Amino acid sequence: MGIQVRDERHMKALTGLSQAQFDHLLSVFSDIYQATQQKTYDKGVESGTRRRKLGGGCKGKLPTLADKLLLVLYYYKTYPTFDVLGTQFAMARSKAHENLHKLSPILYDTLVSLALMPYREFATPEELKAALQGVDHLLIDATERAYHRSQDDAKQREHYSGKKNSIR
Length: 168
Prior knowledge:
Elements: H1 8-15, H2 19-47, H3 65-78, H4 82-88, H5 93-113, H6 125-131, H7 153-159
């Protein structure tokens, strides 16, 4: 692997995590990764497209699960280009891109299973109230987004309040 973590400070600089936090995350990440691989293998066997047993074939540039997790965490901490990411991990930029997009959902599932992901959507007002239990102040940062209006005049008038006049 290209990146060698020297000490605790270096680990925090690369990933934002301590070594203990990384190890805890790695244990759950490895379980979810293995389950994902098994599911993919079973799907391939079922469809008849699988040629090798699970784990067969060439070994990639990221041989261990720690390397895989480090790649994803390093990317999300520093946001390098895929050229830089590939150079850091001794692989082509296309492989860096491929690995990142394969491993990111696994990291997401790991963080969800550890209850470390913030809430993104609420189905009911009760869910919102439960999530805000114990919160004294709530700040909402809203960004206005353009709305794609229909070309049909009648439908367009349903969504147009008349308040905005665009300057042309």
